[in-house]
# Entry
Amino acid sequence: MADVFIDGSSGTTGLRIRERLSGRQDIRLLQLSEEKRHDVSARAEAISRADVAFLCLPDAAAAEIAEAARDCASVIIDTSTVHRTKEGWTYGFPELDGQRERIASSKRIANPGCHAGGFIALVRPLVFYGLISEDIRLQCTSLTGYSGGGKKMIADYSDAYDNMNAARSADGGAPRGESFGRLQAPRLYGLGGGHKHLPEMTKVCGLSREPLFLPVVSSFYSGMEVIVQIPKDETKACGADISAAYAEYYGKDGMVRAVDTGVTGDGDGTLSAASMRGKDTMEVSAADGKDRILLVSRFDNLGKGASGAAIQNMNIALGLDEKEGLVI
# Structure
């Protein structure tokens, strides 16, 4: 039985990991008393006693405890942004070329960002096979459910829907109020062009230029859809070539799977961002358009985009079946 400690188990990702591991017979969760939950020394000591420790913390707090536990022999899996491009940390995306073996032998693993994971799954194989150049300037749009914004955003949406339902019950009319109207519609963010996932998106894919990235949050709880468009004059490959490359790169039985959506999408000419909700797998696809190739990855931002990926990395680090406890 493996001892596991979750530092930051009250946040969205930490809670999900705890819930998912609590029912496993091969895992024993280590816990601190309430008064020691913010004590750096007590947390570092708990990490040292664990076989695997998850850091589910803001960046500054994750950096602080990682430094305090720097001499621990435990496997540390950090779900924050801070270590994803740092030397000495292994990027926790097992499906990338050679990465599963690196994770298996690593003591320091950085869990991928949700938007970043979807982008990397689409782009890394194309750089690997030489289907696009390293200096291409890609454009990426990513749609996410509001759970990706953490506890405060979840509370904002929950409150808005509670108010909406109360208004409907009171007079049978349409929901009212400016705050609900804003949350009901998709919202762009990162308007200045910077985003904390950009460094890993660029480095892990082997690109020399950051993509032009636009994230969008919408009024569904969980799910993610990452979209990359490649102008046809930027590659000699067609959609079928890229689909074949995905199938070869990811194989048939892994957590990332190549699918053929074509222009019919989900059967009605559309592709839902919530189609993979509740699962820990990811689907990638490529389709030809008039003047561009459309690349799409779909997954759950709370699954392969967060807790599911973290548990998969834990399984690999412990030498277990990597799909143990995951929803396929």
